[in-house]
Every structure is written in C-alpha cells, then in structure tokens.
Amino acid sequence: MLRKVNLKEKLGTLDAPWVPKVVAEPNDQYVKVAKFEGEYVWHHHADEDELFLVVEGEIEIQLRDGVVRLGPGELVVVPRGVEHRPVAVRSAQVVLFEPKSVRNTGNVDHAYTIEADELERI
Amino acid sequence: MLRKVNLKEKLGTLDAPWVPKVVAEPNDQYVKVAKFEGEYVWHHHADEDELFLVVEGEIEIQLRDGVVRLGPGELVVVPRGVEHRPVAVRSAQVVLFEPKSVRNTGNVDHAYTIEADELERI
C-alpha cells in the first residue's frame, strides 16, 4: 500500500532548525520538511530551482534586490542561480520541493551544510 | 521580483472540478491546483510519479489493491505505472506536483482529458 504523509505530523517530529528531512521522493525530486528559526545563510543553487511552501509561521526569502514574505499556504520558487537567504520572521514550518541533487547551503560551506546524500528520511 | 503564490487564493478561483491549472514551474515540474468533486476516471501515468496534496476537503486515491484517504495537509505519491482513481469524499481542493509531461487522464481518453501543453496558468 502507498504511504500517506501527514505534513504537520512530520514537521512535529523536527527538533533542530535548518535540518531538512525527506518525506517523499517523486520523479527524482525530494519533498522535504524543515523548521526555520532565525536567519539562514546567503547562498544559491547553480543548477536547481527551489520551492518553499510555508505550513506554519512566517518566513522571508531575502534576495539581493528585494524580499518575498510568505505565510501559511504561500509558496515561492527561487530560480537556479538566484542568491537568497531564508529568514524566519516567526518560527516556521516549511515544505521544500526540489531535485534530489540540491545541497541545502548551495555554493556555500557552512555549519548548516548537509550533503544531499546524507539527508535523513522520516 | 519573484512571484508569491497563495494556494487558497488560487484554488478559490477555480470553477469546474478536475481541471488542473498551473501555479508554478520549478525544475521541469508543474505545481498545479485543482478542485475534486465526485469520481474521476481510472488511469495510470506510464512515465511519471504523481503527488497529491490535499489543502481542503477529503479525497480517496483508489488503487486496484486498496485505497488511501487524504485530508488537509496530507499527501501521497502514486508511482508511475500504478493504476489509480481519485475520488472526492467531500468536495476538495488539491495541489498536484508532477513533471510537465503528465497528461491528466494518463493512458485514458476521457471527457476530462486536457493535454499537458493546453494547461492554463493562473
């Protein structure tokens, strides 16, 4: 039987912020869940677009030329190559849709970096 | 500036059921929104996995060997080649995440069929 995923249930199991975990794998893409708290690191993904969907809380996707603010039920796609910094305006629960190849901190090495092949599945 | 998408706002613009409309296009995938009412048609997609995420209402993904029931915030991935029939238990608002190549009724020609290159963007 196919596995149903309850996003809030999965998000509720997360402890540390900025540690995405995989909940589904359609078409060589990952669906990930993550907690956002405080500020992330400026970075870009050279080869992948990245979709952010907020489930709870509020985030900003800061860009070099502006900012997009997202609340529950809102999403944005950051195109490949576009430098961005996710920031939690309020502690947030977020779903990411992106290719399996995405490295969370993109072109930047950082304490938050988790290699794509080291992501936990929950 | 990047375009923010409010899923409920987009879903609120839909009239006819079973007519998916495109709201984002990351990585050669489409994010689509659709209203589900009543029963759809049995079909499969030979080459694509299909992700269903319920925003409001309740749906069943009927399979030849069982059924998966989804409410708000729940998703399932139907793997390529697996025959399925979506059914609205209660009128539902749904997000689909799948490759651009997906034909909504898959291998079946039906009144509901919309070719992949004829999808409306909203």
Oligomer: homodimer
**SSE string of chain A, helices as H and strands as E:** EHEEEEEE
Category from helices, strands and their pairing of chain A: mainly beta
- Give the termini distance of chain A in whole angstroms: 17 Å
Spans of chain A of at least 5 consecutive residues whose pLDDT stays below 50 are none
How many structural domains can be distinguished in the coordinates of chain A? 1
Q: Provide the gyration radius of chain A in Å.
A: 13 Å
Give the integer mean of the pLDDT values of chain A.
97
Class of chain A, according to the CATH hierarchy?
Mainly Beta
In helices, the fraction of residues of chain A equals under 10%
Biggest interface, chains and residues, is: A-B, 38 and 38 residues
* DSSP strand content of chain A: 35-45%
- Main beta sheet strand tally, sense and closure of chain A: 6 strands, antiparallel
CATH-defined topology of chain A: Jelly Rolls
Please, what is the CATH homologous superfamily of chain A? Jelly Rolls
Overall CATH architecture of chain A: Sandwich
| Global morphology of chain A | globular
Please count the beta strands of chain A (DSSP E, at least 2 residues each). 7
Tally of separate helices of chain A: 1
Question: What does this molecule look like?
Answer:
The structure is a homodimer of 122-residue chains. With 122 residues, chain A is mainly β. The first copy, chain A, has a single domain, classed as Jelly Rolls. Helices cover 5% and strands 44% of the residues of chain A. Chain A has one helix and seven strands; from the N terminus they run βαββββββ. The first copy, chain A, has one helix at residues 7-12; strands spanning 5-6, 21-24, 29-36, 50-63, 66-70, 74-78, 84-99. In chain A, strands 2, 3, 4, 5, 6 and 7 form a six-stranded antiparallel sheet that branches. In chain A, a hairpin with a 4-residue loop joins strand 2 and strand 3. The longest helix of chain A is centred in the N-terminal third of the chain and has 6 residues, at 7-12. The radius of gyration of chain A is 13 Å and the shape is globular. The first copy, chain A, starts with a strand and ends in a 23-residue tail after the last strand. The mean pLDDT of chain A is 97. Chain A binds chain B through residues 1-8, 24-27, 29, 31, 48-51, 53, 55, 61, 63, 65-66, 68-70, 73-79, 82, 97-99, and chain B through 1-8, 24-27, 29, 31, 48-51, 53, 55, 61, 63, 65-66, 68-70, 73-79, 82, 97-99. Strand 1 (5-6) of chain A pairs antiparallel with strand 6 (74-78) of chain B.
